[in-house]
Amino acid sequence: MPISFDQQTKTVHLYNSSLSYLFTLLYTGAVGQVYCGAPLAPRSYPFLALSASGGVFHPDKNTVRFEYPAYGTGDYRTPAFVIQSRNGSTVTEPLYQSHKIYDGKPSVSALPALYTEREDEAQTVELTLFDAPSGVRIILYYTIFTDLPVIARRARFINAGEEPCRVRKAMSLNLDLPDRDWHLLTVSGAWARELQISEKPLMPGFQGIKSSRGNSGHQQNPFLILKRPATTDSGGEAWGFSLLYSGNFSATVESDCYGTSRVQLGINDETFSWKLEKGESFDTPEAVLVYSPDGLNRLSQVFHTVYQSRLARGPWRDKERPVLLNNWEGTYFNFTEHKLLAMASAAKELGIELFVLDDGWFGERDNDSSSLGDWFADTRKLPSGIAGLAEQITGMGLQFGLWIEPEMISKKSRLFELHPDWAIGVPGRCRSEQRNQYVLDMSRQEIVDYLTTIITDLIESAPISYIKWDMNRSITEPFSLSLPPDRQGEFFHRYILGVYELYDRLTTRFPQVLFESCAGGGGRFDPGILAFAPQAWLSDNTDALERLRLQASASLVYPQSSWGSHVSAVPNHQTGRSTSLNFRAMVAFFGNLGFELDPTTLSPEEKQAIASVCAFYKAHRRTFQYGRFFRLAVPDPALYAAWQVSSEAETLVGFYKLLAQPNRPPVRLHLAGLEPALVYDVSLWEEGGFEEQDKSYNCGQRGGDELMYGGLLLDATYVTKRGDFFGELFVIRHGTATLPEEERKPADRAGDSRGDFGKKLSV
Ligand code: DGJ
Question: Which of 56, 153, 437, 688 is most open to solvent, judged by the fewest CB atoms within 10 Å of its CB?
Fold first, then answer.
């Protein structure tokens, strides 16, 4: 049983073989955080329980580690929630009322959440707190997965009083950690420059990230990681906190004068308030905590496992994703049916499986200034419509996919002529245009209903097997005509609930269609949206060098199967940089491979090269998309990068030289997660960077111990010559033979924990 209750100390203990999390009833009646970290045996912990309240004499509430801290009664740190009563007071002090432990995990309607497939995969404890003067009841939900260091948390607020009240802040998670010896790792960025990692020591005071744009944003991503200063990808302690939400969020840490660190994750309270009438309730989004005592790779792999298998839904969750050609960078808005058919036919010859028609097919859209909302084919460009085009393309043996941007409306559109009031804006104020477009008010039910009908008809009108759902601007002038003045604070959350509802209806209606989410690239790349669309367009930046950084940062939390990675033409459209086709392919392999170019313009040599890229990828696609991902250590990350993916049958390793420097020492690339005592068969992708005479020395039969502790050798010839942007791809088949007993080092004879840790990950 992964959750127990100790009657003596009134302590709840969530535990499994990788993690313990304890909270206790304090003498005041509030609930305190006792311990979280490496697993403790399930027994009584009176001394730890005492430490939650800051010591024997309970001198100061600011020394207490609260589970879900309230406002206004002596804890001057930031509260986890704020409720305003009818008399205007925001003081509350909810006390323990009851708790209940049960198997499985309850679902939350309307919001994305982790799920279980069997009751024994997880246990849940519901902790109920009650603030008698306001009549507000708070239920905190904690679900621990039996075989994973994962706890999912959320809160429900119920107005059980007689008077209406207002929830002004409602964090999904609060965690008071006992010390400050952590580095805070977040990502930030901008359009086409998303996911830049920032790491800094926790400082006294307040730190973190937040979005107030209506989407999670290019500028930040809804997670934070706390790692010990010395933690690396391969070792050391770390906590990951990730929010299943696509709207305005905040992820913060407050480090106080007693050295404790208060972590909070939830809806950004600056743009939020929610009115609760008598009897009404409010559910926060879900937050996911992951603990790793073994470094960031382990932390990431746990997130990957749980997001791949217990967040993503529908038949595409486990299916291999098709290799696609998207026409965007090949043509932008400038195409005809004839041109698209020529591109599709060339793509088919290369081994591409899905042709995606991007922006510019509807209304009269020759640039980005018009037609969003008019989801009918532009017959000037497509005389036989979407159905005619799609039928011809599927007739070639390809699948057909289509781009839409349903949440948007152009001022120059029929939809705007009919419904100018559907665009978000405040009466009496100008609406700000961005990319020449406005945003539809997705908090309004009639708009969600309208879009459901229009997109359902569109998908039913043609053999469409993939939808790319774009969102190219954030929200300004937030306001909804459908909400009364005292509910305008609900707008942003209701907007995202409307988006989720539309996604839910369409993905339920069309389970066979693969949905890819996109927001000008990575503007809405978050776990909330992955519950509906199992993959996303990570960034509009398709430069291979930039993608090395983007994909590595994304892999901190997100699995490779969740991002599209495309080979585009050179010079690259975003950076002007030229890299070889094989270098671009070796980067794009680690994700869902696609192409973003015009295949009709390729030379015969390029066509042949792309055909072999596609053939190689398809032969190894399950490993690339679903294998266990490692960021491998390299001596100088400014010069090199290396990734590994491993499945049961094989390991694939990409080594990338970014910049050449003369007279460099050789690189020893230490692989990870192999069985030390197993024999592996190492070879190279023949299209990779090595020349024939270099191919021999790493190849052949090698022990797992040798590959992990000795490493692959990338010698001076390789790392100093042949210029910049040069890669190599190792293909390593997993043997069944084990090394003879006398050839194993002593530790491996007894079994090395590094060798089998992957098996423990599987849910
Ligand atoms: C932004 C996307 O990220 C691109 O891939 C493309 O679909 C454009 N929008 C089209 O407007």
Answer: 56
